[in-house]
Amino acid sequence: MQTQQKGALWVFTAYVLWGFMPIYWKSLHHVSSGEILVNRIIWAFLLTVLALLLMGQGGKLVNDLKELWRTQKQFWSLCAASFLVTINWFTYIWSVNHDFIVQASLGYYINPLVSVLLGIIFLKEALNRNQKAAFLLAAVGVTILTIHYGVFPWISFVLAITFALYGLIKKHIKVDATRGLAIETAFTVPIALIAYGWIFSTGDAVIMDTNPLTVVLLILTGIATALPLVFFAKGVPSIPLYVTGFLQYIAPTMMLIIGVLIYGESFGKFEWLSFAFIWIALLVFTVPEVLRYVRNKRMMVRIDKHESSHQS
Question: TM segments (predicted)?
Answer without folding.
Answer: 7-25, 37-55, 75-94, 100-123, 130-147, 153-169, 181-201, 213-232, 239-263, 275-294
